[in-house]
Amino acid sequence: MRAMTIVIPVSISLSLAAAAQDRGGASSGQTTPPPAAATGQANTPQAPVGHRQPTQGTLPPAIRSEEDSKRQPADPLGPVPKICSNC
Question: Are 55 and 63 in contact (CB under 8 A)?
Fold first, then answer.
């Protein structure tokens, strides 16, 4: 019974807070329109340069072989720790 005396006022105050947040939005119900598109352009904006990262399959063959030659085989034991710098 004591739990109910705590739960009911808390739930009422939370519902009032949620209603206040809902009312605090745009009072006119209007949103700003998106900027007008330039003549001849589609409504969908273009992706920025570098948005899609190339995959190994989309690289030209010359660059793909260059990238493959830069890769080092993975060491199953991990990298060798450097204990001292001037050895």
Answer: no
pTM of the model: 0.26
Radius of gyration of the chain (CA): 30
- Alpha-carbon gap, residue 2 to 8, rounded angstroms: 10
Per-residue pLDDT of the chain (87 residues; tens, 9 = 90+): 788 899 998 999 888 888 887 776 555 555 665 555 555 555 777 767 766 777 878 888 888 888 877 777 777 787 777 787 776
Rounded Cα distance between 58 and 10, Å, is 57
51 to 22, 47, 48, 67: CA distances (angstroms): 35, 6, 5, 20
